[in-house]
Each structure stands twice: as C-alpha cells, then as structure tokens.
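Task: fold both queries, return tokens.
Query 1:
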Amino acid sequence: MDTGWIVSLIISGFLLVLILAIAIPIDRKYVVRENGKINYKKTKIYLRWNVFDTLTLGLAVYSIICVQVLNFLVFSGETVENVFVLFFTNQAQLWTIVSIIYLICRVSMTLKAIKERWGDEIE
C-alpha cells in the first residue's frame, strides 16, 4: 500500500472517532425515544442548529479544500503515483459522500419533526 493511502486511512479513522464521540452523546442526551422509536414531537434538536451540524459544515469545507488541492496537483502534472494525489483523492471522496449522506438524513429528520409538531397546520 502506498503511503498516501495509509495516511488517509489514519486521518479518516481519527475524524470518524471524533464524529462518533460528538454524535453519540448528543443522540443520548437530546433525542427522546419511546418504545425504541424517536418521538419527533418531543425531540427539539432536529429543529435547531447543533454542534453536529457545525462539525458537518467543517467536513464539507475540508472536502472542498481537498478537491481544490487535488485539482491543483493534477493540473500541475502529478499522477496517481504521487502520495499527495492519492491522499487528497481518498479524503475528498470519503468526506464528500459522508457530508451528502448527513445532509439527506438531516433534512429527512427535520421534515419528520416539522410534520409531527405542526402536522396539518402548515397547509
């Protein structure tokens, strides 16, 4: 394995542990569960900006920076054999996918919370 790929795995693992270290306590503290299901009517965290949203925004900015550095390296004539190209390729792909998945889940949970709280009053 190339050095860029190994360093990318280490950085990804570190960021994943950091995300889980923030997400799990937030979930346990603020998400109201009844009979194993989320009670969106009582859970207020989905209707507010929270620490996890800020972290995800930071990851999205990190992804953009990785893509821009990758573009610069490729336009400079570097190939996939360069460790930096390999590192930034892996980082940009991973965190872009994670950010998009979180965005979809967050919008879905927010819409469910809105529907549970206000239901037919909106229409």
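Query 1 returned. Query 2:
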Amino acid sequence: MSQPPFEPNFSEEERLRQFLRQSRTPPPPPSSDLEDRILRSVAAHPLQRRSRLFWGWVGIPILVGTLLAWAGYQRWQAQMVAQETEALETFLVSTWGGLLGQDGVEAETWWIELGPEGS
C-alpha cells in the first residue's frame, strides 16, 4: 500500500540524512593567522563618512522642495476656496434677489452683501 503524497516518508528522509552526513567535506584546518589577516584588512579600509555628507546634499533639497510644494498647494487651495465662495455668493444674490424681488416686494439681500466685518 502506498502512502499519500502529503505525508512525509521518514525512511527516505533518514536515508537522505545519512547520505549527506557521509558525503560532507571536512572543514578546513584552522588558520593561526586568520584573525591577524582580518584585522589588517579592516585597518587598511577605514570607514568613510561620505554617507552623511551625501544625505546632507540630497536630504536638505528634498526637504526644502517638499515644504515649497506644500506651501504652494496650500496657497492654491485657499485661492480655489475664495473663488468658489465668491461664485456661491454671486449665485445666492442673483437667485434670492430674483425670488424676493417678485410681485413688487423689495428684495432683502442686505444680509448677503455684508462683508466679513459686518458692515
């Protein structure tokens, strides 16, 4: 009877483990001067501080550009709101003025035409 494909076959896995244990290569012999060679190599290539300088030259213009773009967007948005408000006020004055001015009744639009200071 064969095993379902989703169950592991432990005998095959164990044979694979045995094969890998027998076939592995022995580790190289320890080198007595390996540590000295590593330290000399590290000392020959000191760390460079170029990365901080790079971020100074790149990061600051990116930050300034982002701030200028944000300020420009805020100004554009304020202009759009002012234009929309003016268009809405014009629409209300013309619409309500026409409705209230019918049948000989005087239009009472003084409250629409007042400025933000109330005068």
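Both queries returned. Flag for query 2: The two ends are 99 Å apart (CA to CA).
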